[in-house]
Write a structure and sequence with these properties.
- The protein is mainly alpha-helical.
- It has twelve helices and three strands.
- The protein has a three-stranded antiparallel beta sheet with strand order 1-2-3, covered by helices on one side.
């Protein structure tokens, strides 16, 4: 392709793609999808899913980030966004909104993903395969964001049994150091102590720490995307979530232990909530210090997945 004169290259590349320069069409496709999703949710608020919004934003940000690193030579310039396909994309979104407004259904969760279907019209199948192959890591990262970035669904699934498991574990550990502890099982178990009774509620499950970890880890991913070893980053993400949940267990153990041996005032007001944010932030800093260099690409190896 580099041997083709500019005049001939212009004739081979569709007009819209030529005006786009060396920016990949997937940048425009993700931006169009993100914009259309925003409009759809304004018209039909029931379509809104925070995980979908952030997954699209992550895809857009990561593709943009990759293109600013000199990786533009890898971008598939054979996939052009044609005007007629953009019009079809807009028409399908309008049709979807019209059907939903007319039917006014109580949307099931699966129906909310219908806002992504018109995006398929932006490229023919062959072009989509090229895009998916070229940006497999960016698409995979967006999928991970969609599944895990807002963990409330997962925590809601485990709520019937996880608080009781968490409370029982804390009770067993603290009872080694504090005499007279009692335990009342349930979906919100209570650890009774000589100075302070502690109830394990939804906010004690560690969900706030996971949310904080997700946001901070996402910032690191975007900032260092072009230097990351993607496989190592995925492993570190799983390990980081595990460290947050383990740290949450330690946090509650320390809270119950100190409140019943040193200062019951620790459990008063919102002190333990603010202290929890500091605790989770310290865990993230320690996790990042231990894994940051390992996550970066090894310049001496060409076999590490990117």
């Amino acid at each position: 392709m580099n041997d083709i004169p500019n005049s001939a290259r212009t004739a081979l590349v569709p007009e819209f793609m030529f005006r786009c320069g060396r920016i990949s069409p997937i940048v425009y496709a993700s931006f169009l999808t993100l914009s259309a999703f925003t409009v759809d949710c304004i018209v039909v608020p029931e379509l809104f899913r925070a995980s979908t919004l952030w997954a699209l934003a992550a895809l857009f940000a990561l593709v943009i980030r990759r293109g600013t690193s000199g990786a533009e030579n890898e971008l598939p310039g054979t996939c052009a966004l044609a005007r007629n396909r953009i019009l079809l994309f807009c028409g399908l979104h309008a049709l979807l909104l019209s059907v939903l407004l007319f039917a006014n259904p109580a949307l099931p969760t699966a129906m909310k993903f219908a806002v992504l279907l018109p995006t398929l019209a932006l490229f023919p199948l062959k072009s989509w395969l090229i895009q998916l192959r070229a940006y497999r890591m960016e698409f995979l990262a967006a999928l991970i964001v969609m599944i895990t970035f807002f963990p409330s669904r997962f925590f809601n699934m485990i709520m019937p049994w996880y608080p009781d498991l968490l409370g029982h574990l804390v009770y067993r550990v603290v009872s080694i150091f504090v005499n007279g502890l009692t335990y009342v099982a349930g979906t919100q178990p209570v650890i009774g102590g000589p100075k302070l009774d502690v109830e394990i509620i939804y906010d004690c499950t560690g969900i706030e720490g996971v949310n904080l970890f997700d946001c901070l880890f996402a910032l690191i991913m975007i900032a260092e995307w072009n230097r990351l070893n993607k496989l190592r980053a995925a492993l570190c993400y799983v390990a980081g979530l595990a460290s947050i949940l383990a740290g949450n267990v330690l946090r509650i153990i320390l809270f119950v232990l100190l409140a019943n041996t040193v200062a019951p005032v620790i459990g008063a007001g919102r002190f333990h909530i603010h202290a929890g944010w500091v605790f989770f932030a310290l865990i993230f800093v320690g996790f990042l210090a231990a894994t940051y260099k390992w996550m970066l690409q090894s310049p001496s190896s060409s076999l590490i997945p990117s």
